[in-house]
Amino acid sequence: MNLNEIYNFEYLKNEAEELVKDTLAKEMKRDKTICDCQDCILDIVGFTLNNIKPLYKTSLKGGLYTNIPDEKYLEALKKTLKQAIEKIKANPSHN
To answer: Are 56 and 14 in contact (CB under 8 A)?
Structure first.
């Protein structure tokens, strides 16, 4: 049985992904040494998402109800993102 043929998973969303991308965009404005190539950005976002708690939400109406994560979660996200940035800076996949 293929669940993708039966159910619409477009209603399932990891809100952490948008938080990571928004936080990275702010960090890139601040730190001009972050490589902005496709490989590095995807590596940074992927590393961060693999190392923080996911925030999956669903809505059958198509719109997501946004719950603002607590300050502890946001700090952990920022710390993990900074680790990802430093790791990818040291070992970029494009070289």
So the answer is: yes
Mean pLDDT per segment of 10 residues, for the chain of length 95 residues?
91 92 98 96 98 87 63 97 98 83
Question: In 3-state terms, what secondary structure has residue 80?
Answer: helix
Enter the pTM of the model. 0.85
Q: Which two tokens stand for residue 60?
A: 């059958």
**Strand partners of residue 57:** 13
Alpha carbon distance 64, 39 (integer Å): 29
- Residue ranges of E strands in the chain: 12-14, 56-58
